[in-house]
Design a protein that fits this description.
Elements lengths: L3 E7 L7 H19 L4 E7 L4 H10 L4 H12 L2 E9 L2 E2 L1 H9 L9 E8 L7 H12 L3 E2 L4 E4 L18 H18 L27
Parallel strand pairs: 1-2, 1-3, 3-5, 5-6, 5-7
Antiparallel strand pairs: 3-4
Helix pairs in contact: 1-6, 2-4
Length: 214
Amino acid sequence: MTAKRIVVVSSGLSTPSSTRQLADRLAADAVSILAGRGVEAEVQTFELRDLAHDITNNLLLGFAPPKLEAALDAVAAADGLIAVTPIFTTSYAGLFKSFIDVVDTQALTDLPVLIGATGGTPRHSLAIDYAIRPLFTYLHAQPVTTGVYAATSDWGGTGAAGEGDGVRSLPDRIYRGAKDFADLVERTDRSSLVRDPFALEGPSGHLIGGLAGE
């Protein structure tokens, strides 16, 4: 059986980053769950802070430099995407949205997506459902039911992950989200997805004035 390809995208700006920490834990649980079912998974992780200049250049010029192109190709070929962003001003980070803007519009079709977010206060947890989930739904991806939000206070909590009905601790939420994601990844087959070889690589709005005034 061919290994499932999981791509992790983290848009944390600091090093070390709680956003990257959450992304790594989501990926680790998803891989562990799939392994328990006899499904091998390969994980490839991209830190968007390392691609920030390339993303900007792509938005301005319409061409992806090699490192960014590798990330975009990985997303297009993935069987599942774990996307984690910090929450700034009640919504996703600008760097996160800019990366999504340069992803081919067909690349996310039917792609299982596990959404993660981090922030200073639990009050911003709803951003997953009112800001991030609609973004991936619009792009015809398959965002899993459980999104995982981690506030600063969550990182000091304890508790073992499990499948109980009372999902409260961060490890519990990570496990639940990873399980929902693994369920989708396991049964998803994107090998037959045909991309248009003549499609523009990246957004075309700037070519027709769609980004004028932005």
